[in-house]
Amino acid sequence: MSADALLGVYDRDLVLVRGKGSWLFDAEGKRYLDFAAGVGVNGLGYGDPAVTRAIRKQSRRLVHASNLYLSPPVQELAARLAAAAFPSKVFFTNSGTEAVEGAIKFARKVGREAGRTELIAFERSFHGRTMGALSLTWTAKYREPFEPLVPGVSFLPWEDLAAAERAIGPRTAAVFIEPVQGEGGVRPVSPAFLRALHELCRQRGVLLVCEEVQCGLGRTGRLFAYEHAGITPDILTLAKPLGGGLPLGAVLLRADLAGALAPGDHGSTFGGNPVAAAASLAVLDRLLAKGFVAKVAAKGEWLTAELLALKQRHPRAIADVRGVGLMIGVEFHGPAGDVVKGLRADGILATKAGDKVLRLLPPLVVRKKEIRRFLASLEGLLVRGAGQPPGPVPVEERFSAESAEVAKMS
Ligand SMILES: Cc1ncc(COP(=O)(O)O)c(C=O)c1O
């Protein structure tokens, strides 16, 4: 079957038909170890029995009735999210970008009487593709073709407190920050900066929005990434893994601000679908189970340490390794695209974040032997010269890196 009927906004050719655990299978039965996890969606991997059971059960009861009515899984999910995060009221969406749209509207409505309409985001941010979220997204190639965007948005340099002090003023409604920038190159914010930003926003009466569509819900080894800084935001956005693979996002608004929103102020026909909510309750059960996120943190620390060792052995290829939990970026001196291609040829799927960063988002349930398989494959590619800037490389240098570690893993 050809992909010609699909609008060409993605460059893709792989046809996937099935998944199990951390593995995907193409139409010919070839299997791939998935270090992209549906761009961070499949936290529990593929075919998780509890998620599948919840979907089956709820789909027999009720698939959709709209937000004109209440539904038990949706009510329960809102209560459980607020209990896990902070005292808040929850609005459900179908996607990350819609969660950001909601956050923008709620921040504007809260700040309206005080004349606070302006928004602040950070350089290299990514918040989504709809017009409001796009206006908060820094990368020119995403923005420029669709200008003019929403006015009143400014961008701050990453971790520059003095710049934040100058920019946050009496017309600012909210500051949006990804505690770990994903698309922007997998850049974790330092806990000290997030704490200082939180305090600055508090002093100036400005809302702090933690945008955790990608880094939230266990990905960083804590349930929410803001926990690493010991703060709680005023607004939290969630999506990707929330629905266990079904489209579901959420905006949590501090409970004491929720009175600013009245019936009719915002809405969505599909947002908070009962089936997605039932799946999400099964996801939450797993994420909140004793030891689950601690295990994610431990696996992430081990993978990061192994990647740092790889960097030592291949300094000509790897420029930096950074991340938190199982959200890790490997920055190369050369193009990351070659590495992504090489991994795929070797049966491993991963994505890029920008031109030079390999973004690793394996399922949170990835096994140690699967991580070993990935590391061996990556080192094999590096030995063959992937990730290096174009130009001649002395032969003896290229092959001296074959290490005892590779022999041990393969
Ligand atoms: C931090 C962040 N915000 C928002 C979005 C947009 O989410 P969606 O593609 O579900 O609209 C993404 C998607 O990658 C993201 O990483």
In words, what does this structure look like?
The chain is α/β, with parallel strands linked by helices and 410 residues long. It has two domains: 16-34 and 291-409, Aspartate Aminotransferase, domain 1; 49-288, Type I PLP-dependent aspartate aminotransferase-like (Major domain) (Aspartate Aminotransferase, domain 2, 3-Layer(aba) Sandwich). It is built from 14 helices and 17 strands. It has a seven-stranded mixed sheet, with helices on both faces. It has a four-stranded mixed sheet with strand order 1-2-3-15. Strands 13-14-17-16 form a four-stranded antiparallel sheet. Helix 3 (72-84) packs parallel to helix 9 (274-288). The longest helix is centred in the last third of the chain and has 22 residues, at 292-313. It is globular, with a radius of gyration of 22 Å. The structure holds pyridoxal-5'-phosphate. Pyridoxal-5'-phosphate binds next to helix 4. Residues 39, 95-97, 100, 126-128, 178, 182-183, 211, 213-214, 239 line the site of pyridoxal-5'-phosphate (PLP).
